Amino acid sequence: MPITIAVPKGRLLEPSLAALRSLGITVPEGLDSSGRELHQANGSVTVFLTRARDVPLYLRQGGAHLGVVGLDRLRESGCRATIHARLGFGRCRLVVASPEETGWPLPSPVRVGTGYPRLTRAHFAGSSTQVRIVPLSGSVEIAPRAGLCDAVVDIVETGSTLRANGLVIRETVLESEAVLAVSARATRIAAVRSLLMDLGEEVGPDACMA
Ligand code: PRP
After folding, report:
1. Whose CA is nearest to atom 7 of ligand 1?
2. How far is the CA of 45 from the centre of ligand 1 (A)?
3. How far apart are CA 42 and CA 44, in angstroms?
4. Which protein residues touch ligand 1 with a CB less than 6 Å away?
5. φ, ψ for residue 161 (rounded to 5)?
6. Per-residue model confidence as pLDDT tens digits over 19-53
């Protein structure tokens, strides 16, 4: 029975395949970020190329046993998964940011623009700040200037997008990087367990369960 692995296509494809190979997984040849072929198999491993944000869905629905996914996306999805390895690329921070000229904390309720509603609610759940989520799927940093929200929760890598849009970091929600995740149901499959034992120690269960 082949092991199925969901891998993000695009710029994360090459480091994902390199990380899988360095863990000892023999991934199929012929996967190419510029190509249109979205799956390759070599008999023991089948790789599906998906959008990065869809990898948790593949894990949740049984479409893939394993997945290379950002910890931010995995936690946001609520997918039940075990993190087998931290892969050391795709490092970034999920942060709360707001316009430089406004103070922090802001009076409640704070309208927060984000593509991470679950993690945002969880972050503020224990604080005195009440939030109203403004769901956004991209270009989040422009939303305060446009009057859609008072603050944002979004990914920061270099910080240049925040700076260019007059926002400053107020709080950190999560430190993230790419991980190799194993779906909860796949951990019960003998072929998957055997592969994972060959790869060595696992990091442990993810803290966020659906
Ligand atoms: C991500 C993120 C920020 C930006 C941060 O966006 O949402 O907008 O990168 O990077 P920086 O700190 O290095 O400036 P991405 O380019 O992935 O596109 P998106 O807006 O569609 O999410």
Report:
1. 155
2. 32
3. 6
4. 138-139, 141, 154-161
5. -65, -40
6. 999 999 998 888 877 777 777 888 889 999 999 99
Domains and CATH numbers, the chain: 3-90+177-205 (3.40.190.10), 92-175 (3.40.190.10)
- Classify strands 110-114 and 131-135 as parallel, antiparallel or unpaired: parallel
Residue 109: asked if its preceding bond is cis (omega within 30°), the reply is yes
Give the single-character DSSP code of 108: S
- By residue count, the chain amounts to 210
Instruction: State the DSSP string of 183-197.
Output: ETTGGGSHHHHHHHH
Ligand 1 centroid vs 30 CA: distance in angstroms?
Answer: 29
Per-residue model confidence as pLDDT tens digits over 118-167: 999 999 998 999 999 999 999 999 999 999 999 999 999 999 999 999 99
Which pair of tokens denotes residue 182? 């194993």
Residue 44 Cα to ligand 1 midpoint, Å, equals 35
Reading the block at residue 26, the tokens are: 């023999």
Structure tokens of 126?
Answer: 């224990």
**Which residue among 156, 169, 172 is best mutated to probe the pocket of ligand 1, counting the most ligand atoms within 8 A of its Cβ?**
156
Q: Residue whose CA is closest, atom 19 of ligand 1?
A: 138
> Under a CB-based contact definition with an 8 Å cutoff, are residues 62 and 185 in contact?
yes
Cα-to-centroid distance, 99 and ligand 1 (Å): 17
DSSP-assigned beta bridge partners for residue 97: 152, 169
